[in-house]
Structure formats: C-alpha cells, structure tokens
C-alpha cells in the first residue's frame, strides 16, 4: 500500500485548525493518521497498557495513555478512549514533504508489521531517524541503489530474502549484510573503474566468513529510479516485509537527495563476489596502524558466483 503524500499535504492546508482530530488515513490494527491544528498525528489504541508519558523533540511529540475524545464525528468512527500518540510537527523550518513521507511510511509499517504494539520502541526509532544528518550525496544514492538491487537480484534468482540481514545495526552497521551463512560488504560504482575503497579491519576481521560484493551500475534513461526500486520491493508480498527493513530504508533515503531519488535512473550491469580471504593485499597489519583505508583494484582477482555464498 502506497500512501499519497501530496494528497495528505493538500488536506493539511484546508482542514480547519480547531483542535479537532480529522482522520486522513485509516491504517491496520485499529490505528490511524489524523490532522489537528496543522500537524499530523499517529494514534494507536493503548492495548499494551503503556503508562502516561509525554516527550517532545524538535519534530516529534509523544504522548502515551492519553484520553482522546476530540474526533471529528463526520469523518471518523474512532471511539473515545485511551491512545498512544506521536505527532509530527509540520513547520516551515523542516523538510516538510520528506519528513512527512518518512513519518507516514513508518507509521504504516508499524501498524502493519507490529499491529501497533511496542509503541515506545517504535518512537525511539522515529527519534533516531529524525535526528539523522541530512547528507545528500550522489555516492549515497549509488550505494543505496546497489544494496537494494542486490536484495532484489538474490531473491529473484536464488529465492533468498536478504532484507532481514541488511544494516542490522542501522546506518552504523560494520558490514552491510550480516547473514547466518556469510557477511557481505557491498561496494557499488556507476563508473567503469574496478577500484573500490575499503576499510581493512572491516572487511578482513573475520575473513573466512566475509565477502566483498562489487556492484556495477550504469546511469541510464532505460533504468529505474531509487523511488521505483523501493516501491517494487515494498509492493512484493514475498520479501522485504518487516518493520526493521522499513526503518533502515527510511534512514537511508534521508541521506539521498529527494530529487535524485525521483529522477536519476540506473541499470544493473554486473555483480561480482570475492571471498575476503582471497583479496587481502596485506599480511599482518602492525598494532600501531589503525583505521586503515585504501582503494583496491579488483581486476587481478577472480570472482566467484554469488550463488556459491548462499546456503
């Protein structure tokens, strides 16, 4: 299900600011998105018995176990009662459409995958998301497209869903995929170069289980945008179905220019897989050397079929 963000924005502009809750999107598990006084609220019945709490951040306002009775009767069948709520502050100073899109998508994922439960953990994830820096670099776009195309490629060709193992520690993950059978570090390029920058300790710390996956893209009008790739993954009923994947996806999207996400198109040209133990250019690294990073040319090394890594 894809929610029309432009439609929600247009509704916000015409709904009266009279402290009434106006339903704009009914979500699964008895939850919903509302507008009140120009802000967007996600309401979840307090079925898990959260204690009363109120927390404010720059963009978010959490209230748990709060009695709600200000529903607009003509458009909402929600009953008066105790709810857990989180409100997105819509102001001119923030990136309105980008923030709203991330907020709405994650609320929908929480309602769908968690049935509105574990509300405090969900709020913590939202706080972490909205505190992320707003880097919008082309390399972030290329890297994200490469990782998502890898998830898609392996499911289509090998029937393995890698999404639960993607960025298991969020954006700070040491390796891109930590799977039961292997750890995968993904490097993506949209150029013809076979050189990739790596962090030595990251890739070679447990070399017998680590693999470097080199992905070659081509920027082409015949390709797909990041937005189209994401929509395809989220629309699939067979994989990429999980709250943590949705959270990680929203985090990574916020590191990419929204304009580039909609307009730059890429074609997958090739995926190369290398056992880390086969491409280590150094022997022992002296203890006095830390955080060693360098570019490695993969051309001299023989790759293996990516299917050989999978169980």
Keywords:
alpha+beta, 9 helices, four-stranded mixed β-sheet, six-stranded antiparallel β-sheet, 311 residues, elongated
How would you characterize this protein structure?
The chain is α+β, with helices and mostly antiparallel strands and 311 residues long. 31% of the residues lie in helices and 28% in strands. It has 9 helices and 12 strands. The strands form 3 sheets. The chain has a 6-stranded antiparallel β-sheet, with helices on one face. Strands 7-8-10-11 form a 4-stranded mixed β-sheet. Strands 9-12 form a two-stranded antiparallel ribbon. The longest helix is centred in the middle third of the chain and has 21 residues, at 138-158. The relative contact order is 0.13.
Give the low-confidence spans.
Answer: none
- Main beta sheet: strand number and arrangement? 6 strands, antiparallel
SSE order: HEEEEEEHHHEEEHEHHHEHE
Please state the structural category: alpha+beta
Provide the spatial order of strands within the biggest beta sheet.
Answer: 1-2-3-6-5-4
Oligomerization status of the protein chains: single chain
- The tally of strands reads 12
Report the portion of residues in β strands.
25-35%
Count of DSSP-assigned helices? 9
Distance between the termini: 32 Å
Q: What is the number of independent domains?
A: 2
Question: What number is the mean pLDDT?
Answer: 89
| Helical content class | 25-40%
What is the CA-atom radius of gyration, in angstroms?
Answer: 22 Å
The dominant shape is elongated
